[in-house]
Amino acid sequence: MRADARRNAEKLRTAAVELFRERGLQAPLKEIARRAGVSHGTLYNLYGTREALIDEVVTDLAADRLDEVSRQALAMDDAWDGFAYYIETLCELQITDPAISDVVTGRYPNAERLMAVCGRAHDAATRIIERAQQAGSLRPDFTGEDLVFVFATNSVLSRAVRDTAPDVWRRGVAFTLDGLRTEAAHPLPTAPLTPQQVYEVMGNIAGG
C-alpha cells in the first residue's frame, strides 16, 4: 500500500471508530469519509463494503469489551450475581456505545470477523446462563436465544431514550431480572425460537 493510501486508511479508521461509537454501525459511510477528509470513492476503494470497514475498525474493540464482561461475570462467586452483572453491564454499554449495541444484537451478519466475536460471546453467555441455572437462581427455561431478545429490546429503548431519560433502561432491566428469578417463574406460553429463527428475526430488525 502506498504511503498516501496508508494515511487515508488511517484517517478513515479513526473517523469510522468515532462515528460508529456515536451513532452505531449504521452511521452513513459518506459522513465517515467526510470526517476523514477523503472522498467517498476512496473509502470504497480501500474497504469495499460497510461490513469490511466494520470488521477492520470494530472487531478488536468489541472483542476486548465482550471478553472482559464475560470474564468478570464468570469470576463472580455467586452465579446469579454474575448473570445479573452480565446483563446490566452489556445493557449499559448499549446506552453508552451504540457500536457495541449493534454488535451485541448481531446486526451485521456479513461482517465475518465480528460474527466470530459474537459467536464467542454467545458461548460465554451460555456458560453464564447455565451456571446460574445450575445454582438454582435462574429459571430453567431461559435460553441464550431469549437473552438475544433482552438485548434487542434494550437496544431499541437505548436509541429512543438516550437524550430524554438516559437512565430509564435500568428500570426495564430490573423488571427483567426480577422476572427471571426461579421463584418468579410460571409456565411459558410458547417455546423459544431456534437459533435459525433468531438469525432471521435479527436480520429483519437490521433491515428495518
Automatic annotation (TrEMBL):
PROSITE patterns according to UniProt: HTH_TETR_2
Alphabetized SUPFAM superfamilies for the sequence: Homeodomain-like (SSF46689), Tetracyclin repressor-like, C-terminal domain (SSF48498)
Transmembrane recorded as keyword: no
An example Gene Ontology molecular-function term: transcription cis-regulatory region binding
Domain HTH tetR-type: 6-65
InterPro entries: Homeodomain-like_sf, HTH-type_TetR-like_transc_reg, HTH_TetR, Tet_transcr_reg_TetR-rel_C_sf, TetR_SbtR-like_C
DNA-binding residues (ranges): 28-47
Record has Transcription regulation as a keyword: yes
Keyword annotations: DNA-binding, Transcription, Transcription regulation
Protein name per its UniProtKB record: TetR/AcrR family transcriptional regulator
Organism in which the protein naturally occurs: Streptomyces chartreusis
